[in-house]
Each structure stands twice: as structure tokens, then as C-alpha cells.
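Teaching note: in complex prediction, the entire set of molecules is handled at once rather than each chain in isolation. The prompt given to students was simply: 'Predict the structure of this complex.' The entities are:
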Amino acid sequence: MVSSKAVFLERFGLRVPIVQAPMGGATTPAMVAAVCEAGGLGSLAAAYLSPAAIEAQLRETRRLTSRLFVVNLFVPFIDPQVAADELERALEELRPWRERLGLAPAGALPRVERFEEQIVAVLRDPPAALSFCFGLLPPAAIDQCRAAGTVTIGTATSVAEARALEESGVDMICAQGAEAGAHRGTFDARAEPSGIGTLDLVPLLVDAVRVPVLAAGGIMDGRGIRAVLSLGAVAAQLGTAFLRSPESSIPQVHKDALTLIQSTVVTRAFSGRPARGLANRFTREVLSPVSFPLQNSLTREIRQAAAARGDVEALSLWAGEGAAMARALPAFDLVRLLTRELEEAEQR
Amino acid sequence: MVSSKAVFLERFGLRVPIVQAPMGGATTPAMVAAVCEAGGLGSLAAAYLSPAAIEAQLRETRRLTSRLFVVNLFVPFIDPQVAADELERALEELRPWRERLGLAPAGALPRVERFEEQIVAVLRDPPAALSFCFGLLPPAAIDQCRAAGTVTIGTATSVAEARALEESGVDMICAQGAEAGAHRGTFDARAEPSGIGTLDLVPLLVDAVRVPVLAAGGIMDGRGIRAVLSLGAVAAQLGTAFLRSPESSIPQVHKDALTLIQSTVVTRAFSGRPARGLANRFTREVLSPVSFPLQNSLTREIRQAAAARGDVEALSLWAGEGAAMARALPAFDLVRLLTRELEEAEQR
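The expected output is the structure of the full assembly:
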């Protein structure tokens, strides 16, 4: 019998069942291409990009590698209904942060990219796969991907979400355990995010659905990869493990903070959706965020200014629970090292 | 090179690196003996027992098996300083629960067993190992165990706790990931319990200490056992997996609730210490517990009456995050099944 893992490797022409997780603000075409060249599967983080920027990043990635890769988007969302007093409170809470960073009072909000335009840009020259989070794709988008030969990979943090994804017609499901850094994929943005760890979520989903399951959350080295393969995952998706690579575009202060990490928190302060990272003054003091994606728009200039200044107290320091195990290696070298570690783990 | 896992198996004469977790209120001498007879390592939960009851359970276990087993205790604690108004509030909050269950108003509190007396009872005929949680053993107790040939196994939920345990002279450390059911082993009862999952905690501890690391939390079947062995653990400790066995002394309504489980919560309502279980009216409404172990004493009659009546809203429904995967099998059969599943996982 051919294993599901072998089918996955074959489908994407991989040497090793390692997927580099899409990370907005960290992933670059250089990272994606390096992972692919080393035999893994890179993922472009396109959710925050305009259609023109998506096309440019796709072109750049293809210039750097001829191997297959993934593009990641958020599902379309309905503009949140935010009451005037809620918005006022959120703006008031952010005012001292703008002052701290020398920003003018908040003006017009940046445009939120529209999924309907992004998916057109993505599928103009279809990538091998489209991964997505925060819910279900519209049936039309599933059909578009299928027609384009693009594999769809939804993100689930619970059995119920995985069942809904399978029902919607996705080809694969990424099980995102509670250890994962940055945004929780939880469908309902207002609900307490599911806190179930990768060790239980993966076998629960493997038993609940028929489509292949990828594992994400807390996987940092060959030991972790071997562990999630044991649980029945076809591949391991690693994000935080790549954050310290030279191809990662997070600020140097963020990379440095990862080496000192003791623990992480889940916060809505930066985007309005729960996301895991290091605690700082911003996560402690910003307690009245408005809904996603409005809060994300409200904090964009603050995050950009904090990154430019290296202000570690105002930055979104996304990190998974295993961040202390992240290694500062080029993405290509890291994938090769993970491959060797996995081979060693297989032999134990 | 002989692996640490092989050394562990050899040390306790095991066929398989499976430890049955000590569970107060669930573990019985019959469960411990069945696990041992099947080739695993059973653990008696002695923390809530009087010295006389400990001796009786040790005798009963030895009558049922000649194999080695573990006894578990809590570390000694200082009686909590509870202000009169705090105690008043806690009693007031519990009053309707006593009424609901037909209990007379709260009278004298049950005696809290003293570690110093329990350890004497345990070591009268020394077991193969003493495992413990909530902190460090006093140096004298470590010395007593060493003199008796009893292996000491401390419980850690973070790297800092593991380092402190190693420094204190324990022989092994059990890494308790956030998925684990019932009490978090966190040293500081007042702190937010560490939420780090088993998938990250095990490799972090394996890298941080030199003593062997056991893995606990979220391990439900052969896939999970193989996973934590991949992470570097010498053995897998399973608790929730045994909760539905006929040897488990939890009420039938608790066993039934496990099959319907959707998610778990961490609550201090029952004991004053954070512990994971199913949410019910008690966890939602009892919000002013006093410190451990006083709250545990205050709720004892309530829990006993709820168990007798099968009142699922007043019971402590301890469960790990993987409880939906627990199987209703005799403990002996479960260990044999886990052994076969592990062998299959090894061959994949």
C-alpha cells in the first residue's frame, strides 16, 4: 500500500514532508524558493497583499525556483459592524502608541484587500496549492481552484471545523494545534480560540475526515516532524522554525526576542483576532481592540513604525510555543538539517 | 549504544514504555496491577490517602501482581493563609451546592493528609518508584527514597521547573504538557499554569536536563506513544486513556460524559489549583475558590455526594484534551492493544 505521505510527496515533487508555513510579515519569495530548492514545500503569505503585489511575489518566486509551491490567503470576510463608541475607544487606546512612535493622528484607514480580487491574481498562473484560514472558501473559489489544478488546503483547529472543511470540498486539511504562532485559524473570530494541542488535534482529525491531514503547531525540528508523522499527518508545517532565517523579513529585534523567549500569550490587541506571540507592553495595555480586520488596519502604521524603530514594546512579536528551539539558519540549510534529523529519528 | 528507553524498560522490567498515570479518585489497585501484568508500569494515586489506606492499597496491589509499580504523592505544602472574608465567600458560594445535594451545612473540615506521615507508609515496603507533583521533595525525602532504592520522578510543566527538579536530585522527570487531564503540576499554585503543549514541552525538557524525561498529556493511543518517543521521551504516561476502564473508580456518569466530550476547561473551582476537565455548572458558577488544599477540603462532601447521585453538574469531570479517543477496555487489554498499536506505528 502506498502511504498518504508518499502520495503527498509525489503530488508536490518533494524530497521531505516539510511545509514552510505562510507568515505575513515574515515569509519572502526568497524563503519560499529556498525551502522548495531544498526539497520542501514553501508557502507564500499573500493574504495582506494587493493583487499587483501577489503577482509580483509569484513572479519573483518563480524566478528563484522552478519547483512547486503554495499560496496562502484568508477566506473572504464580511466587513465587521463596529459601533461608533467601540471604534472611538479603540482609537483612543491607540493614540498614545501613535504619539510614542511619532505618528500623526490616525487618518484614513488603509484599504483591506478583497479576496475576490486576490484569488484572480493567484490563479492567473495557478500555483500548486492554495492554503487558507479563518473559515471556508466560497464554493465558486473551490471550483476555480479545481479547474486550475490547484490543490486546496483548509485550516482547522477543531474536529467541527475539519468536518465543515471536508464537506466544503477541500483537498487537504491543515490541523493547527494550539502551539502555533501568530493567528489562530479558528473560524469564529469572536469565540474563545480552541486550545487543543497538536498531539491530540492531529489524531482527532485523522480519525474524523478522509482527506489528508497536515500538522501545524509546535513543530521545531526532526523530532517534532517524526512525531506528527507518527500521529498520522502526511506532512509537518513549520513556521516559527523559519522565523530566524536570513530570508525572514521580521525585524531583527523580533528575531533577537525569540532567543530569550520564556512563554507566549494569545492576544487580540494587534488584529482583533486571537494570535500567539510574546507578551509586551502592547499586548498588556491594548485591551479594547475592534473586530478583525479593522483592528489590523488601525494598528498597521504603529506596527510598521515599531518595526522601523526596533521598538520591541509596540511590535507584534508572533511566535509559537516552541520558539526557543528556533535556529538561525538559512532556510535551505534548515530544511536540509531537518531532513537529516528526520532520517535519524526514523532510525531510532 | 543502549537507548534511554531500553534502560527505562530494564529498570522496571517492562515490556512496553507505557506508564499508567496516578489519578486520585480513578486509579485502583486493580488498575495498577492490570497495567503491570500487561507489561506496563502502573501508578497508585496515594496523595489523598491516609497512611493506613496507603498501606492497605500497597498490600492489595502486591496481592494482585508481583511486578514493579509506582506510588504517587503531592509534595508537602504549607497550610494556606486564607483571610476570614475569603473563606466566608467560598463557603457562601458552596452553600447552594450543599443544599442541592441534601448535605447539612458545612461542619468541621476533613483532615488533610500529611506528607511526612504518608512517605513513611509508602517506604515501609518501598515501591519501585515514587512520583510526585506540585513542586520539589524535601532533601530528606529524596535521601530516604535513594536509601530505599526507590526511583524519584518529579513533575514539570516548564523548563524552569524541570531544572529545579534536576537540581534537587530527582532520578527522572515527567513532562506534563497542557493537554493533560486533572491537576496541572505547576509549582506555583497561584500562577497562571503553563499552557505549553506536550509536543514542545518534551523536547524542551529533553534538551534542558540530563535525567530521563517521561511524557504526559494528550497521549491516547499507539500513535501518541510513538510520537512522544520520537520527541526523546523514555516512556509515555497515559491517564485519561484508562478512565473508561472497568478498573477506573470514577462514577459511571463521568465515564459516559467522556464519550460526548467536545472540549475541556482549566478550573480552580474544585480544589483551588488549576485542573483540566469538562465544563459543567460547578466550573461555571464556583468562581471564588480558596487556596489549595483548603478548597479541596471544602468541596469533598459535595463531590462525594455528586458521585453517589450521578449529578454530572456538581462532579469534577477530569479529562485530558484527547478524552474523545479514550476506549472502554479493561486496563490489561488496553495496554496490550497500545503495545500492538505502538509496534505497528514503529513499522510505518
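Point out the following to students. Chain A touches chain B through 38 residues (CB under 8 Å). The first helix of chain A runs from residue 4 to 12.
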